[in-house]
Amino acid sequence: MLIRDMTVADVDGVYEIEKETFSDPWSKASFLESIAEPNNHYLVAIMEGSVVGYCGYWGIAGEGYIYNVAVKASHLRQGVGLRMLEELIMQAVSRGITSLTLEVRQSNEAAINLYKRLDFTEVGTRKDFYTKPLEDAIIMWRSPIH
Fold first, then answer.
1. What are residue 104's DSSP bridge partners?
2. Other CB atoms closer than 10 Å to residue 35's CB: what's the count?
3. What class is the 2-101 domain?
4. pLDDT tier at 18, thresholds 50, 70, 90
């Protein structure tokens, strides 16, 4: 598995995973805008020449907000998410990020367990944060990340 920075050429593959994973997916244009923004940093996981996962964060003033983490359904439970996030955290540290936060659906036990494995802790909830279906989000932080 190769993990590298996301490029414009990856957006079609990323968008396919996004549609497969989320009930309210980002558009291709949103990904293109995000990877062009200098405060954002996005990675992709590549296997056999195809995008099988992606993740990214927005960083400012030493804090990073993880926007997206998704793995192609056919590659779940193969360590793709863990490897991507480990690399994302290492790169965030090298860019001066000292803490990371994210929201996760309260019903997404697999993701919650992954984040806990990476030393994120639950610090609160956001009522009705997600739509389609309506659901609360668990707010998680990892601070410090070094």
1. 138
2. 18
3. alpha beta
4. very high
